[in-house]
Amino acid sequence: MGRRMRIGELSERTGASVRSLRYYEVQGLLRSERTPSGQRTYSDDAVDYVHLIRLFLASGLPTRKILEMMPCMRSGTTTPEQRAMLDGERRRIDEQIAELTTVRTRLLEVIDDAARRDGSRAASSASEAP
């Protein structure tokens, strides 16, 4: 068996709070073993899983969907149903990216327009100075 780390070290290595790590475990997203005194310990691959879990959560995936994906992540293989679910999530994220790109473009237009107006006001104020 490889080296095991305690929850505090996993928290430090991933940036996830201890509370979040416990939540991931309760949800079935993260596996730990217990020492004889009851402390959680994690394998080194838990770091990658936590990073992936956090990315998926940040993308808006609910924990139940992430749980469906965990067997794919652990085994590296998928069933046709899992691939369909993963592809559906990819399409959802693609749509989010398109929406965010549109919002970003519009925001840049507003910023540019405001800068032009502020610049023309500054220029006209300077020409009116005695």
Question: What can be said about this structure in brief?
Answer:
The chain has 130 residues and is mostly helical.
For this entry, give a set of tags:
130 residues; mainly alpha; 3-stranded antiparallel beta sheet; 5 helices; 72% helix
Q: How would you spell out the order of helices and strands? A: EHHEEHHH
Largest sheet: 3 strands, antiparallel
Share of residues in strands: 5-15%
Amount of helix: over 70%
Structure description:
The protein has helices spanning 7-14, 18-26, 45-58, 63-75, 80-128, and strands at 5-6, 33-34, 40-42. The protein contains 5 helices and 3 strands. Helix content is 72%, strand content 5%. By secondary structure, it is mainly alpha-helical. The protein starts with a strand and ends with a helix. A 3-stranded antiparallel β-sheet has the order 1-3-2.
Topology at a glance:
Elements: E1 5-6, H1 7-14, H2 18-26, E2 33-34, E3 40-42, H3 45-58, H4 63-75, H5 80-128
Antiparallel strand pairs: 1-3, 2-3
